[in-house]
Amino acid sequence: MREDPLYKNRKVITIGVVSELTGLSERQIRYYEERKLIFPERTERGNRKYSFSDVERLIDIANKRDEGVRTYEIRQEMLKNKKKEDAKIRNQMLRGQINARFGIQKGKN
């Protein structure tokens, strides 16, 4: 049996289960979706499906809210972190292209 290394990102959990796991009400979870802090997928019937990564993110959001952080500030932090991650990936891709172009092998000087 092949194990998916990205199982945490598979959207398979219903909002009711997410509510039980996080201690948040379904209304709070939907509110965080409205504020663009969480992005569930929808089934053909319109039901929301979440991943384990989403559950972790919701717990992090709830903890920050308990500390008094506003949803706007959480969203800004998420955007900033995404830009950093995008830049890191872009740099890795460019480094790979340069290495391939000039025949540089990883680990050799």
From TrEMBL:
SMART domains: HTH_MERR (SM00422)
Matching InterPro entries: DNA-bd_dom_put_sf (IPR009061), MerR-type_HTH_dom (IPR000551), MerR_fam (IPR047057)
Origin: domain of life: Bacteria
Keywords: DNA-binding, Repressor, Transcription, Transcription regulation
Record carries keyword Transferase: no
A GO term for molecular function: DNA binding
Residue ranges constituting the HTH merR-type domain according to the UniProt record: 12-81
Xref: PANTHER family: HTH-TYPE TRANSCRIPTIONAL REGULATOR TNRA, REDOX-CYCLING DRUG-SENSING TRANSCRIPTIONAL ACTIVATOR SOXR
Protein name: HTH-type transcriptional regulator TnrA
Species of provenance: Robertmurraya siralis
Taxonomic lineage from the root: Bacteria, Bacillati, Bacillota, Bacilli, Bacillales
